[in-house]
Task: structure prediction
Amino acid sequence: MEVELLSRRKGIKGLKLTAPSGYSAVVDSAKCTRCGKCVQICPYKAMQIIERDGEKQLEQSIDLCMGCGVCVDCCPSGAISLKVDPDKGEIFDVDAILQLSRMQAAATSRRASQ
Ligand code: SF4
Ligand code: SF4
Result:
C-alpha cells in the first residue's frame, strides 16, 4: 500500500498494488460536522477538509476511495456508509471465497480417500 500511495504522490499512473473492495464511501452531508476524523484515518487520502466561502466542507475523492470502510466506524456522527459501486469492480466477498475454499478442500479429501 505504501508503494501505491507513493506512486500516487509522484503522479505515476497505472501502478495498482491494491484492489478496490467493490464499494465506495458515501457521506451524508446533513450529518457531517466536518470534524476531520475521516480525513486523518483514511489511508488513501480520499477525504479532505477544504474551506469554501469561509465555511469548512468535507471533500471526497471517489477516484481515490478504495472502499476499505475504515472511515465508517471512525465517524462520530454516523455520517459515512459504504455503497456498492460498479466502477470499483467485483465485490470482495470473503464468505464466498471461504466457502469455495472449504468445498475444494472437501473435494480433495474425498479424492484422497477413494
Ligand atoms: S468523520 Fe464524519 S463527521 Fe467527521 S468529517 Fe468525516 S464524515 Fe464528517
Ligand atoms: S472507505 Fe477507505 S478509502 Fe474510502 S474514504 Fe473511507 S477510509 Fe478512505
